[in-house]
């Protein structure tokens, strides 16, 4: 990790530790105030606990033009971003995506879409619906490795993180506490529950927390839809296509709507926020990831709406290309931050 980023974060953390005005704002400050000195691992843990709500910055009396020039949200954001790149496996993928996230996401989606469009010539024999374009076995052969790779990559990354912050043995009670906190997005609600100042200094809003929840729960619903369809196909001998009122369709459509709207709102909020309070160099990567995830949801909804038209093969190629790009790029995008954040909450629960 870059020593200058850690040194600046250490300087600011030491001043905050002496001041303690923001003690009740979020999980960062009780953890920060529990230390007298800050190792590189301590700073990495604090950075991944921070949700960049920015409330502490707007409340701080030591921001510029004060000589202390505190900007803790930016300092922690830069350490956090650098830690994700350093822990990623392989590291080169994360660094490349943060520099050119939008272009990489776009090129990957289009490249995979063209691959699926070409593969339709190998389509199934006598398949129905989407399987008339690409067989079920072909989809499994393509997407199973694409799912296993990011899980393996993220597992390696989390192991590196766990060692770097000096975490102890994983305990179920700590994991349960962290999952409850993540499900509620507690640290995005502000120290007093009125929301955070992400959009505007004087405006407390829960919009960012709600957008994150829409994306998270929308994604989980879509994953549940795929999992349910897998069980129905293999265990119950009920292959797709499924009717509208089937469980896979209900889960997938509701999840797709939530995920799409949540991503649109997150992009809107990011464009309204002050870039000087975050890791400005990572903005392209963040927009690229959120846009890719939103396109996965949107393309799935459009595919369902127009699945009985002549556009279906083209829409299916685009959707599958987006899904495959999303899975393969997950370890290098901000999608990985959810795993790091959960790990940080587990470590904090054991503090």
Could you characterize the architecture of this molecule?
The chain has 2 domains: 3-84, no CATH class; 89-349, Fumarate Reductase Cytochrome B subunit (Up-down Bundle), CATH 1.20.950. Helix 10 runs antiparallel to helix 11. The two termini are 24 Å apart. With 351 residues, it is mostly helical. The relative contact order is 0.15. It has a two-stranded antiparallel ribbon with strand order 1-2. Helix content is 67%, strand content 2%. The chain crosses the membrane at residues 101-119, 139-158, 214-236, 242-264, 276-304, 310-332.
Low-confidence stretches: none
CATH architecture term of the largest domain: Up-down Bundle
What's the overall average pLDDT, rounded? 87
Largest sheet, spatial ordering of strands: 1-2
Oligomeric grouping of the chains: single chain
User: Which fold name corresponds to the CATH topology of the largest domain?
Assistant: Fumarate Reductase Cytochrome B subunit
> Helical percent range?
55-70%
Number of helices: 13
| Major sheet characteristics | 2 strands, antiparallel
Count of all domains: 2
**Class computed from helices, strands and strand pairing:** mainly alpha
**CATH class of the largest domain, please?**
Mainly Alpha
Give a concise summary:
By secondary structure, the protein is mostly helical. It contains 13 helices and 2 strands, in the order H-H-H-H-H-H-H-H-E-E-H-H-H-H-H. The chain has a two-stranded antiparallel ribbon.
């Amino acid at each position: 990790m870059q020593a200058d980023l850690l040194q600046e974060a250490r300087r600011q953390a030491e001043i905050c530790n002496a001041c303690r005005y923001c003690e009740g704002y979020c999980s960062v400050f009780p953890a920060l105030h529990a230390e007298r000195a800050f190792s590189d691992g301590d700073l990495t843990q604090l950075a991944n606990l921070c949700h960049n709500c920015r409330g502490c910055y707007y409340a701080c009396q030591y921001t510029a033009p004060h000589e202390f020039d505190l900007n803790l949200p930016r300092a922690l954001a830069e350490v956090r971003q650098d830690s994700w790149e350093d822990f990623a496996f392989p590291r080169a993928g994360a660094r490349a995506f943060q520099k050119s996230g939008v272009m990489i996401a776009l090129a990957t989606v289009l490249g995979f879409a063209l691959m699926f469009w070409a593969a339709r010539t190998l389509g199934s024999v006598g398949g129905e619906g989407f399987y008339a374009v690409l067989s079920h076995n072909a989809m499994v052969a393509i997407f199973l490795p694409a799912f296993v790779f990011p899980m393996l990559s993220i597992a390696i990354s989390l192991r590196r993180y766990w060692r770097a912050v000096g975490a102890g043995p994983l305990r179920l009670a700590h994991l349960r506490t962290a999952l409850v906190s993540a499900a509620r997005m507690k640290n995005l609600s502000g120290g007093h529950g009125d929301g955070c100042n992400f959009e505007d200094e004087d405006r407390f809003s829960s919009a960012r927390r709600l957008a994150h929840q829409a994306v998270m729960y929308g994604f989980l619903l879509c994953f549940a839809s795929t999992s349910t369809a897998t069980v129905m196909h293999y265990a119950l001998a009920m292959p797709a296509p499924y009717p509208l009122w089937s469980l896979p369709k209900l889960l997938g459509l509701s999840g797709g709507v939530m995920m799409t709207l949540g991503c649109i709102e997150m992009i809107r909020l990011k464009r309204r926020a002050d870039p000087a309070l975050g890791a400005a160099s990572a903005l392209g990567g963040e927009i690229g990831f959120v846009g890719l995830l939103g396109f996965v949801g949107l393309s799935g909804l459009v595919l369902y709406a127009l699945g009985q038209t002549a556009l279906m093969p083209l829409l299916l190629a685009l959707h599958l290309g987006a899904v495959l790009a999303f899975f393969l790029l997950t370890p290098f995008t901000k999608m990985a931050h959810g795993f790091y954040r959960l790990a940080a909450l587990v470590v904090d629960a054991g503090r």
